[in-house]
């Protein structure tokens, strides 16, 4: 029986104690392995190019080069499959987070989130999915895209979604997981994934994080709404 190799993770954080805690947490999982560490953004870029990790846990506020600039360099300068970057921050409304997501980061998690949430974010990223910490989905997007919500009508592409695809899209925009969406709509998780894939394709979006951003930018969902 063939087993998949563990997910390689690079941990970038300028605080030694925080970095050590993340290394212990991630390294203690049988399906994850820490392949490199970095104490600043410049080192994160260098180490990412050297070891090509599957996932990078990137602190947003670091010396020499901040996490935003490091994310851009890593994702635009990659030859071959790009690493997936998950942004970590102490602040639930960090001014750099929206830009980090636009730069290609596939997730945003708070450092004080429960360990299981952080591990879920790493595994989701490695699987090609994305995760924004549910505790801050609404406030984060509202804070940095609210000024764009004056648009009078949704983009024409939204009209191409079927009724079920729009339901899935709206629930994703509220920060729901696939499991929660499946339960809410009484359908299988595999069906949710199929609908979401079609939504992303029709709207030209990269992943569920950018689906959330798209929804808020175009006033398709109100902050704080949750069915």
UniProtKB/TrEMBL annotation:
Give all residue intervals belonging to the HTH luxR-type domain.
154-219
Please report the stretch or stretches of sequence annotated as the Response regulatory domain. 8-126
Signal sequence span is: none
Asked whether the keyword Glycosyltransferase is assigned, the reply is no
The organism sits in which domain of life?
Bacteria
Show the CDD domains listed in the entry. Answer: LuxR_C_like, REC_NarL-like
Q: Which SMART domains match?
A: HTH_LUXR, REC
Q: Which UniProt keywords apply?
A: DNA-binding, Phosphoprotein, Transcription, Transcription regulation
Q: State the taxonomy lineage.
A: Bacteria, Bacillati, Actinomycetota, Actinomycetes, Streptosporangiales
**4-aspartylphosphate: modified positions:** 59
Name of the protein in its database record = Response regulator transcription factor
């Amino acid at each position: 029986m063939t087993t998949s190799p563990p997910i390689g993770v690079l941990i970038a954080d300028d605080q030694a104690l925080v970095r050590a805690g993340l290394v212990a947490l991630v390294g203690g999982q049988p399906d994850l392995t820490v392949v490199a560490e970095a104490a600043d953004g410049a080192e994160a870029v260098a180490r990412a190019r050297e070891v090509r990790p599957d996932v990078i846990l990137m602190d947003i506020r670091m010396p020499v080069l901040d996490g935003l600039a490091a994310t851009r360099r890593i994702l635009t300068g990659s030859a071959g499959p790009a690493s997936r970057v998950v942004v970590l921050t102490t602040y639930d409304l960090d001014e750099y987070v929206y830009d980090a997501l636009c730069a290609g980061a596939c997730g945003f998690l708070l450092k004080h989130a429960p360990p299981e949430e952080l591990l879920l974010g790493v595994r989701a990223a490695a699987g090609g999915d994305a995760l924004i910490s549910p505790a801050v989905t609404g406030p984060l997007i509202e804070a940095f895209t609210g000024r764009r919500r004056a648009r009078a009508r949704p983009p024409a592409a939204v009209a191409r979604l079927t009724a079920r695809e729009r339901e899935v899209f709206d629930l994703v925009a509220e920060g729901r997981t696939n499991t929660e969406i499946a339960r809410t709509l009484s359908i299988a998780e595999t069906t949710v994934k199929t609908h979401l894939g079609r939504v992303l394709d029709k709207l030209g979006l990269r992943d569920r994080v950018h689906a959330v951003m798209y929804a808020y930018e175009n006033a398709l969902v109100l902050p704080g709404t949750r069915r």
